[in-house]
Amino acid sequence: MGRFSVLTLTDAAAARVNEIMASRDGALGIRVGVKKGGCAGMEYTIDLVTEPKAGDDSVEKNGAKVYIAPEAVLFLLGTQMDFEVTTLRTGFVFNNPNQTSACGCGESVELTAASPESLRQMQGAA
């Protein structure tokens, strides 16, 4: 059985992560997580990584490294991370199958942890 990725990166997201890594001395990548907050209940977090933490999962694409906080794995399972530039907003976008709703401003989301069945399906596909 192969190893599956908790999340995937688009080319645009990988390019932006590489830009961030190149602009900061000692940067090894970024860490994606979730925390309680906002009107919908949870918010995505993104932090610079200069030293990986024990238990971090990671994905890599085109040299870009994204670490996933262990407490966020079940909330991010199956997520595609993208980077978009629009007239109103520039930033990372998470296309997350575990997201059940979002607040009107888009700053917070409601997430449900992935089911054991989802995990089995991803393991079988790897």
From TrEMBL:
InterPro entries: ATAP, ATAP_core_dom, Fe-S_cluster_asmbl/transfer, HesB-like_dom_sf, SufA_proteobacteria. Residues 7-107 form the Core domain. The lineage of its organism: Bacteria, Pseudomonadati, Pseudomonadota, Alphaproteobacteria, Hyphomicrobiales. NCBIfam families: iron-sulfur cluster assembly accessory protein, sufA_proteo. Pfam families: Fe-S_biosyn. It comes from the Bacteria. GO terms for biological process: iron-sulfur cluster assembly. This is Fe-S cluster assembly scaffold SufA. The gene is sufA. Belongs to the HesB/IscA family. GO terms for cellular component: cytosol. SUPFAM superfamilies: HesB-like domain. GO terms for molecular function: 2 iron, 2 sulfur cluster binding.
